């Protein structure tokens, strides 16, 4: 049991007691004469007096100027405080807090064998999520178990003031020692004083809303923690990475409230009872949904709606949706203000355009904007401004609204804002030619009930948007576009234009900076011609369900294409220059060819020795079975085989092709999810998930085939893939995860194909570097014939493939930092 010791110096100088001078010297002289045979005991007494004098206590002269009545009053005041510590005010309605308090107490390991150790706990989460409330509740619950305690609130805000850190240091010492500290003077002196006075004490410290390591260094550690064994330090922050850098023992993420607790908390503030009034249930649920489990929003919204009519509730909620509450905005905006310029730009792009979008897709776009998205998004995740759900970017609705409000505040006139996402604002700007050089992003996405209306626009509306980077037009099924869209910005990195009415893209359209071209469900017949320049930055081309597309783009013009999606282009009869897709990682041909033609085409792709060029490639097709040319196939979701004995020692396994047929019992339902490809070398005991295939099945199909090609080069993620030897047993399994009920989806059949090559073939590669682009440009300038795959379908003739052109073609290969060319002939 801990005891409280308070020394009282009544007509005694603490210095005499500490140094054993004055009357203490006389006393100890007598004791040393009396205990000559046990001087060790006297030395212990001297040490105890020194230690007692160093403890915080009361001195009649210095604390009360010799006035005994005042002296006694101060002693009583401190004793009462020690015996009855003042609890912090938490919240009026602590809904759902008890569960989290108990979780925190478990992590703090109170009353266990580790109680004597110092332990640091970090709490993180978005603004307004309840970190401070939870920290105060934990503090109140456990503070009596320590020799001293201090809860420093709003550390970030206080430390920004003049001498703010010094004030916090003084507050920390006073809270624990209960003695008024004379002005510390500077932070370094404060650090020394805290270490000197508290290094032996078991204390509880809460540092709330910290955003810089310097704040923690000034109050709790300079590399070693200032406090004694058994101490506990709780730090709350919005920045998870700060806790990582600090090296805390445990990190606790404060999540948003569940729906039941949210409704209860909201009801306490709106109705002063734990549930809505009878006539307000439906609209209360709508209000709770808007708050999204954020306690701050639930309290603000509930208090604002209290005592109002249902009509007023509806108008207030509509106002909040269009213009978020200022108090909520201020709290959430603190994290945004702490970001650097580049990270702010990434945050605003996500808030306005990329919520729910695949993170790799967004990386490709923003990287070419010069925004370093890998660093920026990591920071945003750590500060709880952005989340990654599976592989998609997500954001709390109120944080999204905060970001959009920041853009809205840029100007009263929509055409003078950096980003436009509201269809009302976009139509106003386009119809009245109000766009300006300020506009960097524009998204026109009509609500479902308005998608069939006729929208008439002039291409000249885009002329003044010379810095437009991002363009999205979706949900506009009847767009009447007058003029030529050659006025589009040269800065465009992203064009996502679904149901585009154009038959051809203008030859003088500047696409040299374009990274993603997504024109699903468009009227396009041919995307571009040889008049267009080489699109060296284009990485994603999606022409799904362009039912009038008869001729593929010339892939010679897109040397760095990584994803090619031609799903549902059933009129496509001409595929040009497919052998130039050297870096393509994802190919989707579902429904654009007949099944047997798709399989033949894919086999042609795989025979181009692409495993050497890229680490992996995915191909999507409609199909009910694994192709016959696979070396191993089996019904079910796993397959085992033995590495074959290669009689010719010069022949080696250079790559693997995995195949999986996904089944879906309901053709009227779309599904999406992931397939984990698990590689298990049973002989060596190595097991690893080598890839996660994203799986999407549109409405109208039952089964489709996914192929994954993996090269066993230096970038292979297959454990010891290059060291597979004859006779080893390998098992590959496909573990399907779906967002919907798993009983409706699964794996029907799977297979694996070994790509075997002679070593001498690999050795025939020739060095190839920066000449690649010039070779392509020369081919385009000279109108060199390219290999293309054409389907001739005369009346009543069977469908066959024919190669047009017999010139050699070049497949580009990249290994580590060197680039190679591999020459083949299609004679």
TrEMBL record:
Domain TIR: 1-83
Secretion signal span: none
One BP term from GO: defense response
GO molecular function: ADP binding
Record keywords: Leucine-rich repeat, Repeat
Protein name: TIR domain-containing protein
């Amino acid at each position: 049991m801990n005891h409280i010791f308070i020394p009282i110096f009544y007509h005694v100088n603490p210095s005499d007691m500490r140094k054993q001078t004055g009357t203490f010297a006389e006393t100890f002289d007598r004791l040393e004469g009396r205990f000559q045979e046990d001087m060790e005991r006297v030395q212990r007494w001297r040490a105890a007096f020194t230690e007692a004098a160093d403890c915080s206590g009361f001195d009649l002269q210095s604390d009360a100027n010799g006035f005994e009545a005042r002296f006694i009053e101060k002693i009583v005041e401190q004793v009462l405080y020690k015996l009855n510590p003042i609890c912090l005010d938490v919240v009026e309605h602590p809904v759902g807090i008890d569960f989290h308090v108990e979780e925190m107490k478990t992590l703090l390991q109170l009353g266990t064998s580790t109680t004597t150790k110092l332990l640091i706990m970090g709490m993180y989460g978005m603004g307004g999520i309840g970190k401070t409330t939870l920290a105060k509740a934990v503090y109140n619950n456990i503070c009596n178990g320590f020799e001293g305690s201090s809860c420093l609130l709003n550390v970030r805000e206080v430390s920004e003031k003049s001498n703010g850190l010094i004030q916090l240091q003084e507050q920390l010492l006073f809270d624990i020692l209960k003695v008024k500290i004379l002005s510390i003077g500077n932070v370094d002196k404060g650090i020394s004083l805290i270490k000197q006075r508290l290094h032996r004490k078991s204390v509880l410290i809460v540092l709330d809303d910290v955003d810089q390591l310097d704040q923690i260094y000034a109050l709790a550690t300079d590399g070693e923690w200032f406090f004694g064994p058994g101490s506990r330090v709780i730090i709350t922050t919005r920045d998870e990475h700060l806790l990582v850098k600090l090296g805390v023992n445990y990190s606790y993420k404060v999540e948003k409230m569940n729906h039941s607790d949210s409704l209860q908390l909201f009801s306490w503030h709106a109705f002063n009872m734990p549930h809505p009034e009878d006539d307000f249930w439906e609209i209360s649920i709508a209000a709770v949904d808007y708050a999204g489990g954020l306690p701050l929003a639930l309290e603000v919204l509930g208090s604002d709606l209290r005592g109002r009519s249902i009509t007023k509730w509806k108008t207030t909620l509509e106002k909040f949706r269009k213009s978020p509450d200022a108090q909520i905005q201020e709290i959430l905006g603190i994290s945004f203000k702490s970001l650097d310029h580049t990270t702010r730009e990434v945050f605003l792009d996500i808030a306005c355009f990329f919520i729910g979008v695949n993170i790799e897709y967004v990386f490709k776009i923003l990287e070419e904007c010069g925004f370093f998205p890998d660093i920026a998004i990591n920071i945003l995740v750590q500060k709880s401004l952005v989340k990654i759900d599976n592989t998609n970017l997500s954001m709390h609705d109120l944080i999204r609204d905060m970001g959009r409000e920041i853009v809205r505040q840029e100007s009263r006139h929509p055409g003078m804002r950096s980003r436009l996402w509201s269809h009302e604002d976009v139509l106003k700007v386009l119809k009245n030619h109000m766009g300006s050089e300020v506009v960097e992003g524009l998204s026109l996405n009509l609500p479902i009930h308005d998608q069939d209306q006729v929208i008439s626009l002039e291409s000249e509306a885009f002329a003044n948007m010379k810095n437009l980077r991002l363009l999205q037009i979706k949900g506009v099924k009847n767009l009447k576009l007058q003029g030529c869209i050659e006025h589009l910005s040269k800065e465009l990195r992203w064009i996502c234009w679904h149901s585009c009415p154009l038959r051809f893209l203008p030859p003088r359209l500047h696409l040299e900076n374009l990274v993603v071209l997504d024109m699903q469900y468009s009227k396009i017949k041919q995307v571009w011609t040889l008049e267009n320049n080489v699109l060296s930055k284009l990485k994603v081309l999606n022409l799904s369900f362009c039912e009038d597309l008869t001729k593929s783009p010339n892939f010679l013009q897109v040397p760095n294409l990584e994803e090619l999606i031609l799903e549902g282009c059933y009129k496509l009869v001409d595929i040009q220059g497919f052998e130039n897709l050297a870096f393509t990682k994802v190919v989707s041909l579902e429904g654009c060819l007949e099944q047997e033609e798709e399989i033949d085409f894919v086999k042609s792709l795989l025979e181009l020795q692409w495993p050497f060029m890229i680490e992996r490639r995915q191909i999507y097709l409609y199909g009910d079975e694994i192709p016959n040319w696979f070396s191993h196939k089996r019904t079910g979701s796993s397959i085992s085989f033995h590495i074959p004995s290669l009689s010719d020692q010069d022949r080696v396994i250079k790559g693997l092709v995995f195949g999986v047929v996904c089944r879906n019992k309901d053709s009227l339902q779309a599904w999406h999810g992931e397939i984990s490809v698990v590689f298990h070398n049973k002989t060596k005991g190595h097991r690893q998930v080598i890839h996660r295939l994203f799986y999407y099945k549109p409405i109208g199909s039952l089964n489709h085939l996914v192929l994954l090609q993996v090269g066993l080069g230096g970038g292979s993620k297959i454990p010891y893939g290059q060291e597979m030897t004859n006779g080893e047993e390998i098992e590959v399994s496909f573990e399907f995860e779906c967002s919907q009920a798993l009983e409706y989806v699964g794996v029907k059949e799977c297979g694996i194909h070994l790509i075997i090559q002679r070593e001498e073939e690999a050795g025939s590669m020739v060095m190839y570097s920066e000449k690649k682009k010039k070779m392509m440009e020369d081919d385009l300038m000279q109108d060199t014939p390219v290999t293309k795959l054409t389907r001739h379908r005369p009346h009543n003739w069977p469908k066959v493939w024919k190669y047009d052109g017999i010139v050699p073609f070049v497949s580009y290969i990249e290994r580590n930092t060197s680039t190679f060319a591999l020459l083949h002939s299609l004679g």
